[in-house]
Each structure stands twice: as C-alpha cells, then as structure tokens.
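Standup notes
- DV: blocked on the single-chain target, sequence here:
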Amino acid sequence: MAINVNNAEADALTREFATMAGVSITDAIVIAMKEAIERRTSSESPAETAARLRKKHGISLTPSSRKPLSHEVIDSLWDKG
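- DV (later): unblocked, structure below
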C-alpha cells in the first residue's frame, strides 16, 4: 500500500531520520511510527509516576498525608520578604 506525503517538512524529517538510522525511507517511517506508538502506549500516568517515586524514596501515604494543608500552612510557604 502506498503513502503519498505532500508535506515538505515531513519529507525532510523522514529523509533526515533515514540517513541518521542508515535505513531506507520506508524503514524510517516504520521505525518512527513504532517508536511513537510505543511511547504513547507505555507512558505512565501521573498517579503511576507518583507511586513509582514514593516507592523509590521509601515514602508511604498515611491518612494524615492525604489531608489537604491548611490555609495557614500554604500561606507560610510564600516568601513575604
């Protein structure tokens, strides 16, 4: 099946990638699309990132850590000087 690209930037990027990778134009498109699909399907959600970082740093969520901070605490974080 043929793909017809009528976009100069897409053509230039594909050719640049093909040269960098040492592959044909067709292979460059296949590689780029596989990598793009993999990045989008394997990326973690913000909640997964937070869980991974908590585990890495030995942090556990306790009932008190799940409560919102008071206005006084939040206000104290601002530089007043």
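- Follow-up: The chain has one domain: 7-81.
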